[in-house]
Aspartic proteinase CDR1-like (Canna indica), 89 residues
Amino acid sequence: MGIDWRYTVMGIDWRYTVMGFSVSQTIVAMALLSFSLALLAIAFPLHSVAAGEGLSIKLIHCDSPKSPLYDPSTTHFDRVIAAAHRAQE
């Protein structure tokens, strides 16, 4: 089963198939697959919130030692100056 091309331009009988499926069948199948994946991507986080586990996000300041942006070689004064510059932006 390869690719089958059939055209009749004036009679408007054209067909393009891939592996035995028409283009419209392929588009519908891809749309259903995309919709199903989007639905699952939304349903799983909502399920965890509804199950009582809740949704929690830890915010870490960029000057915190827990931050990947933290530079241990800077002094407290350097961090204060950097924070003042960020506040002005």
Q: What stands out?
A: DSSP finds two helices and three strands in the chain.
